[in-house]
Amino acid sequence: MGEGTVIGGAGSAGGGARRAEIAANLADVRKRIEAACAAAGRDAAEVTLVAVTKTFPASDVRLLAGLGLTQVAENRDQEAAPKAAATADLPLTWHFVGQLQSNKARSVAGYADVVQSVDRPKLVTALSSAAVRAGRTLRCLVQVSLEEPGENGEPEGRGGVSPSGAVALADAVAEAGGLVLGGVMAVAPLGADPAPAFARLAEVAAAVRAAHPEATDVSAGMSGDLEQAIACGATHVRVGTALLGGRRAIVG
Ligand SMILES: *Cc1c(COP(=O)(O)O)cnc(C)c1O
């Protein structure tokens, strides 16, 4: 999928105006991160800003890189693969943050540096063999579900292993060839107070670190809740809307 499939894609507008818009948004987001770190008694250098560029054209990725951002994220392989290829000349670290089918592992292992959405053993196996085959090393975060369990005791909603299963999955990543365990990731439940969910994630992150001291990444917080995530120890915030504006519909 190319940029042309993004309805009303911003890439066509005057590049200067779009650059100024993104630069202003970036300054706002950096201020929010600094204020949240100050409030939490943390150093702003402890928090890495990851720009989520889904539905936005490769030209926006290029503008972000020109403004000094190096970390970008996508959630669908069909969109991410061509965008990463179109910006392969830039010094970017690509994060994959969406639900991932095992049969897409090989494609994702070709361009992603970090897979934040590792949620089951089968995906660990698929990513491991894909990384080994490609001669690449993938940093992997275990995605933890912070949803209330459904009637069958399994978490419902947007993916992730239950908190009680996170350490075992982290063990599997740590043992797998071609993969490095980075830490944990979560999305706050929709429509609920994110603070208790992020506090729960902090507990899971500590349990994972107890077994794997090198796994220090805690990816939590998006445009609407990055302050609460930073208060709970997030090391990575994933920000889309606040940087790039409202997402466009995608055809196909
Ligand atoms: C889209 C997305 C984000 C960014 O969300 P915004 O609210 O636009 O900042 C963060 N994390 C994941 C997993 C996403 O899919």
From TrEMBL:
The keyword Thylakoid does not apply. GO terms for molecular function: pyridoxal phosphate binding. The modification N6-(pyridoxal phosphate)lysine is found at K54. Residues 29-247 form the Alanine racemase N-terminal domain. InterPro entries: Ala_racemase_N, PLP-binding_barrel, PyrdxlP_homeostasis. Keywords: Pyridoxal phosphate. The keyword Protein biosynthesis does not apply. It holds the Pfam family Ala_racemase_N. Its cofactor is pyridoxal 5'-phosphate. PANTHER family: PROLINE SYNTHETASE CO-TRANSCRIBED BACTERIAL HOMOLOG PROTEIN, PYRIDOXAL PHOSPHATE HOMEOSTASIS PROTEIN. HAMAP family: PLP_homeostasis (MF_02087). Pyridoxal 5'-phosphate (PLP)-binding protein, which is involved in PLP homeostasis. Belongs to the pyridoxal phosphate-binding protein YggS/PROSC family. This is Pyridoxal phosphate homeostasis protein. It comes from Actinomadura viridis.
